[in-house]
Amino acid sequence: xxxxxxxxxxxxxxxxxxxxxxxxxxxxxxxxxxxxxxxxxxxxxxxxxxxxxxxxxxxxxxxxxxxxxxxxxxxxxxxxxxxxxxxxxxxxxxxxxxxxxxxxxxxxxxxxxxxxxxxxxxxxxxxxxxxxxxxxxxxxxxxxxxxxxxxxxxxxxxxxxxxxxxxxxxxxxxxxxxxxxxxxxxxxxxxxxxxxxxxxxxxxxxxxxxxxxxxxxxxxxxxxxxxxxxxxxxxxxxxxxxxxxxxxxxxxxxxxxxxxxxxxxxxxxxxxx
Length: 273
Hints:
The protein is an alpha+beta fold.
């Protein structure tokens, strides 16, 4: 019970937002006994009403997950998700570097036959429409890239299938990327996919807009690769990604130059004394 309270990162009269750790399933199944839904009694109100799930994350995906505290809020949030007015932002590390830095993936998805519905695949004839926006934030040579992903539809495993389909599987995603999804060296073999942010209208007005910190394995990989987390949180509104990123880089470069000038001035001052 204490654990579920520890992962709450936002609470108000209508909603909780938790930072779901990797490895914890959202809901139970035939082989899943421990799951978030089973822990929600720990967030029940004084009358015993427990919050309700209104969307899901894959077991190995970490990050922001919204819970509705009332039936009214559940209906409101569910309508936002089905109407695609909710905005979800994911961070991922992918194998290699996409040639197009700011693009859309529009590939229909369906359950892969023979997998019992446990795996999805691209199916141009019978698949449901599936669209993802991706933006390259930073790269580590040609080895890997840090990307922002925004699902514009909500298919099962959509981000994982889409990135693998364009030849850049998410690091640690052996299910869709095979052995090619694992990097050598000190890089964790866990899935590097994190729901970083959710922005959704609030039933009482305004918005819920929450970001979640990276889990330990993802944060360690980012540090090992030298990625600058300051570059990560880009505006959700429609702007040219290249302009946004270039602006951040110019600002960081100007700040670094300013610090170098200050240090030079300090050295000159000490020399005169």
